[in-house]
Design brief:
By secondary structure, the protein is an alpha/beta fold. The chain has a single domain (7-260), classed as Divalent-metal-dependent TIM barrel enzymes (TIM Barrel), CATH 3.20.20. It has 9 helices and 8 strands. It has helices spanning 17-27, 46-56, 80-99, 117-141, 156-164, 176-182, 188-195, 224-234, 247-260, and strands spanning 7-10, 30-33, 64-67, 104-108, 144-148, 170-175, 199-204, 239-242. It has an 8-stranded parallel β-barrel, surrounded by 7 helices. Helix 2 (46-56) runs parallel beside helix 3, helix 3 (80-99) runs parallel beside helix 4 (117-141) and helix 7 (188-195) packs parallel to helix 8 (224-234). It is globular.
Length: 263
C-alpha cells in the first residue's frame, strides 16, 4: 500500500528531535522541524543551530520540512525596526532550512486578524514587497515556501497574498486546526476547494473549537474522513504533517490517515 500524500510527523512528537526521528523511521514518515532553537537561546547562532539540527537528523533519509520561526514575528509591521527583526528571522529560517535539506519551509502570514482597513492595506503592501524579493532565494535553491493560515477567517486573505507573489516556489499551506478554531463560518473542505492545486502543504490536527489543542485526528469536531475524501476528489497531493505533540496522538493519527489515504 502507498500513501496518497507524503506524511510527516512533528519533531516535537517526543522529548527530543532525535527521538522523534526514530519514531518517524519506525512509522515510515518524514519529519518537520517544528521549533528552531535559535530564537529561545541568545547563545545560539545560525551556524550552531544548523550543527545541532544536522546532528539530530543524522542518518535520517525521509522527507524533511521546516517550520520557520514565528513567535512575535510580523514581517509586515508598520514599525520599521520590528519589521527588520522579523525579516531577519525569516532569512535565518531559510538559511537553516537550506542547510538541513528541507524541501519545504512553512511561514505564518503574520496577520493578527485586525479589522482596521488602513492596517490591512499596509500589511498586504509590506508582505508583498518583502516576499517578491525573498522568494528569489527559494527559486535559486529549489525550496518551496508555503504560507499558513492562523487567524484568517476565510481562504480569501491567503489567496490574495498568494496571487500577489508570482513564483512557482511560493505556495499555500492549510492548517486544519486553525480553520476549525478561527474560521467558524467556513469549513476545511471549503478551504481545500478554494486552494485546490495551489495547496502544497498541510498541518493536520483537531480541536473542539475552544482551544488550539493540536489533538489527534479523532479528538475534536473535525471529520477527517470527509477531509481526506475531499483531498482525493480534488486529486491533489499536499504533504501532510501530523502536528501533534505526543507519541500516542501521532500513532492514532497515522492509523487513521493510512485507513483513508493509502492506495
Amino acid at each position: 500500500m502507498k500513501r496518497k500524500c507524503p506524511l510527516l510527523i512533528s519533531s516535537s512528537a517526543k522529548n527530543t528531535i532525535k527521538e522523534s526521528v526514530l519514531l518517524a523511521n519506525e512509522l515510515n514518515t518524514g519529519i518537520e522541524i517544528s521549533r528552531i532553537p535559535l530564537y529561545k537561546d541568545k547563545n545560539m547562532t545560525v551556524d550552531s543551530t544548523i550543527d545541532f539540527l544536522q546532528s539530530e537528523l543524522n542518518g535520517f533519509e525521509g522527507k524533511r520540512t521546516l517550520h520557520a520561526m514565528f513567535s512575535d514575528v510580523n514581517i509586515s509591521s508598520r514599525d520599521w525596526e520590528l519589521r527588520e527583526i522579523a525579516q531577519k528571522r525569516f532569512i535565518q529560517s531559510f538559511q537553516v532550512g537550506k542547510a538541513i535539506g528541507a524541501d519545504t519551509i512553512l511561514f505564518h502570514t503574520g496577520n493578527k486578524g485586525t479589522k482596521h482597513y488602513g492596517s490591512i492595506k499596509s500589511f498586504k503592501k509590506n508582505f508583498v514587497l518583502f516576499w517578491n524579493d525573498f522568494v528569489k532565494e527559494f527559486e535559486k535553491s529549489g525550496i518551496i515556501a508555503v504560507v499558513e493560515n492562523v487567524f484568517e477567517t476565510t481562504p480569501n486573505y491567503c489567496l490574495e497574498l498568494f496571487n500577489s507573489i508570482n513564483s512557482p516556489n511560493f505556495k499555500l499551506a492549510l492548517d486544519t486546526g486553525h480553520v476549525n478554531l478561527y474560521a467558524h463560518d467556513t469549513t476545511v473542505t471549503e478551504w481545500l476547494k478554494a486552494y485546490n492545486s495551489n495547496l502544497y502543504h498541510m498541518h493536520l490536527h483537531n480541536n473542539f473549537r475552544e482551544n488550539d489543542d493540536h489533538s489527534n485526528l479523532e479528538n475534536g469536531t473535525l471529520n477527517f474522513k470527509e477531509i481526506f475524501e475531499t483531498i482525493k476528489e480534488l486529486n491533489i497531493e499536499p504533504s501532510c504533517v501530523l502536528e501533534m505533540f505526543t507519541e500516542e496522538d501521532i500513532r492514532k493519527s497515522v492509523e487513521l490517515f493510512d485507513k483513508y489515504m493509502t492506495v
